[in-house]
C-alpha cells in the first residue's frame, strides 16, 4: 500500500515530517497479517489460498520465501531448502548456519508483510514474525487418516509408506524448530487460533479466519505499519551482515527508525568498522547510518 510523506513548518525551522497512507474505508478495515502453521500434507496450502482469495490478500508459501531469500542474499536455494528438512546435526556443521537462516528468512518475510495484507503458510511464520502486533497466528490440524490419503495420492505411496513419510517429516521438523527457536512448534500457547479439520470443513475454517481478523486486536493500524517497516529494515540489515562472509560473525544491536539505522555493540577490531558500514549501505532504502560501535578492549592477563 503506497506511503506518503508531508513536511510542515515548525518553530525550530527543521519542519515536522508526517507519514500517512491514503486508502478507502474498506481497505483500512481489511489490513491484517495471517500465518498458518501446519504439518506436512495437512491442507494448509489449500486453506491459505482460500483465505487469501476471500480477502484479496497476497498468499506466500515457505518455498517462495526460501527462493526470495536465496536470490536476495546470494545463497544457494537448495541449501536453504535442505536445511528446512534436515535435523540439527546438519546445521551444526556450519558455525553461523542458524543465525544466517533466521536472518535471511525473517528479512524476506517481513518485507512481504509490509504490505499489511498477507497470508503466509509454512512451518515457522509465527516464529519469524514474533513480537509483531496484529498478526493472527493460526495452527491447522488435520486427522492422520486425511494426511495419509493425501500422501498416497500426491506421492504415489502405499499406505504404510505414506504414514512413515508423514511421521518422519513431522519428527524432523519438530527437531528443526526446537533447535532454531528453542520451543516446540506445536505448543498451543504459540497460536491465537487452532483449527481442527476433523470437526470442520475447509470452507468453515476459511470463514472462521476471515471473521477473526475483523476484530480490532488483529487490525493493522498506521502505528503498527510504521513499526513493521522499521523492523523489516533492521532485519534486512542483519540479513546482509549475516550473508556476507566478512561480517558473518559480527553480533551487534541494530535499530531502524524511518530509514535511519543505528548500530550498537562491540566489534573485535577497528578494521571491521568500515566493512560493516559498507555492507549496510548496500541497502538503498537507508537514509543514514549512525555508528555507535565500540572496539572490544582486551584486558592484559595478570602477571
Low-pLDDT runs of 5+ residues are 18-29
Largest sheet: 5 strands, parallel
Instruction: Assign a percent range to the helix content.
Output: 40-55%
Number of helices: 12
Domain module count:
2
Distance linking N and C termini: 64 Å
Q: H/E element string?
A: EEHEHEHHHHEHEHHEHHEEHE
- Category by helix and strand content: alpha/beta
Number of strands: 10
Q: What's the CATH topology label of the largest domain?
A: Rossmann fold
Kindly report the name of the CATH homologous superfamily of the largest domain.
P-loop containing nucleotide triphosphate hydrolases
> In percent, how much strand structure appears in the residues?
15-25%
CATH architecture tag of the largest domain: 3-Layer(aba) Sandwich
Strand order, main sheet: write it out.
4-5-3-6-7
Mean pLDDT: 84
Description of the structure:
Helix content is 46%, strand content 20%. Helix 3 crosses helix 6, helix 6 packs antiparallel against helix 11 and helix 8 packs across helix 9. The protein contains twelve helices and ten strands. About 4% of the residues have low confidence. It is an alpha/beta fold and 303 residues long. It folds into two domains: 198 residues, 3-Layer(aba) Sandwich (Rossmann fold); 52 residues, Alpha-Beta Plaits (2-Layer Sandwich), CATH 3.30.70. The chain is globular and about 65 Å long. The chain has a five-stranded parallel beta sheet with strand order 4-5-3-6-7. The protein has a three-stranded mixed beta sheet with strand order 8-9-10. It has a two-stranded antiparallel ribbon with strand order 1-2.
Amino acid at each position: 500500500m503506497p506511503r506518503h510523506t508531508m513536511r510542515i513548518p515548525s518553530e525550530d525551522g527543521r519542519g515536522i515530517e508526517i507519514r500517512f497512507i491514503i486508502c478507502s474505508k474498506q481497505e483500512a478495515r481489511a489490513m491484517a497479517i495471517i500465518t498458518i502453521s501446519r504439518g506436512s500434507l495437512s491442507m494448509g496450502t489449500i486453506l491459505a489460498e482460500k483465505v487469501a482469495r476471500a480477502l484479496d490478500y497476497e498468499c506466500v508459501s515457505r518455498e517462495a520465501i526460501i527462493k526470495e531469500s536465496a536470490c536476495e542474499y546470494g545463497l544457494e536455494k537448495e541449501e536453504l531448502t535442505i536445511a528446512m528438512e534436515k535435523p540439527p546435526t546438519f546445521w551444526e556443521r556450519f558455525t553461523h548456519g542458524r543465525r544466517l537462516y533466521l536472518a535471511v528468512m525473517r528479512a524476506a518475510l517481513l518485507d512481504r508483510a509490509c504490505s499489511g495484507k498477507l497470508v503466509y503458510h509454512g512451518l515457522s511464520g509465527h516464529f519469524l514474525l514474533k513480537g509483531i502486533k496484529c498478526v493472527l497466528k493460526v495452527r491447522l490440524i488435520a486427522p492422520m487418516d486425511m494426511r495419509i490419503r493425501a500422501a498416497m495420492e500426491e506421492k504415489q505411496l502405499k499406505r504404510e509408506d505414506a504414514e512413515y513419510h508423514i511421521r518422519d517429516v513431522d519428527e524432523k521438523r519438530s527437531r528443526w524448530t526446537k533447535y532454531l527457536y528453542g520451543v516446540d512448534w506445536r505448543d498451543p500457547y504459540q497460536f491465537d487460533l487452532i483449527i481442527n479439520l476433523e470437526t470442520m470443513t475447509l470452507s468453515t475454517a476459511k470463514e472462521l479466519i476471515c471473521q477473526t481478523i475483523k476484530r480490532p486486536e488483529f487490525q493493522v493500524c498506521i502505528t503498527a505499519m510504521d513499526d513493521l517497516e522499521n523492523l523489516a529494515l533492521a532485519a534486512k540489515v542483519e540479513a546482509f551482515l549475516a550473508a556476507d562472509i566478512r561480517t558473518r560473525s559480527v553480533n551487534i544491536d541494530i535499530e531502524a527508525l524511518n530509514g535511519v539505522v543505528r548500530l550498537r555493540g562491540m566489534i573485535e577490531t577497528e578494521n571491521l568498522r568500515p566493512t560493516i558500514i559498507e555492507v549496510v549501505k548496500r541497502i538503498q532504502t537507508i537514509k543514514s547510518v549512525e555508528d555507535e560501535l565500540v572496539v572490544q578492549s582486551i584486558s592484559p592477563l595478570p602477571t
